[in-house]
Every structure is written in structure tokens, then in C-alpha cells.
Design brief:
Blueprint: H1 9-22, H2 26-50, H3 53-62
Helix pairs in contact: 1-2
Length: 74
């Protein structure tokens, strides 16, 4: 499948440098980076499904109720 995508020049140049170093095409580098990002999004989605607001609040309930320090506000 062919897709046209606009990327910042700096990002494209990084892909070119990686492609040269890996003896690969820029298309292969970009496809690999996209595949890795898609896997990461899927991993985060699965992780989010395991959590819930109730579980989060239960963990917060275990945290001590202490006054925050001034440096915590910076």
C-alpha cells in the first residue's frame, strides 16, 4: 500500500541517517518505526483495560494523608 505522509524535515533526515547506517531503505525504516509505535499503543490499550477508576482510588486510599511540601508546588 502506498501512503503519502508529511513529516518534519528533521525527522525525515533522521530516518535517512538510520537507513544508511542499517543499509535499509527509508521506507523500511519508517515502516518499522510505525509498526513499533502501533505495538506500543496496543500494549498501552491492553494495560489500560486492566485498570479502573475503582482500583486507582483504592490505591490512593492507601497513601498517607500528609501536607505537601512547598517544593511540590513548583
Amino acid at each position: 500500500m502506498k501512503v503519502n505522509v508529511n513529516v518534519p524535515d528533521e525527522l525525515y533526515q533522521q530516518a535517512v541517517e538510520i537507513a544508511k547506517a542499517q543499509h535499509a531503505s527509508v521506507d523500511e525504516v519508517i515502516a518499522s518505526a510505525l509498526a513499533q509505535q502501533m505495538l506500543e499503543w496496543e500494549r498501552l490499550r491492553q494495560k489500560a483495560e486492566r485498570g479502573s477508576r475503582e482500583k486507582f482510588l483504592a490505591v490512593l486510599d492507601k497513601a498517607p494523608d500528609v501536607k505537601r511540601d512547598d517544593y511540590d508546588l513548583m
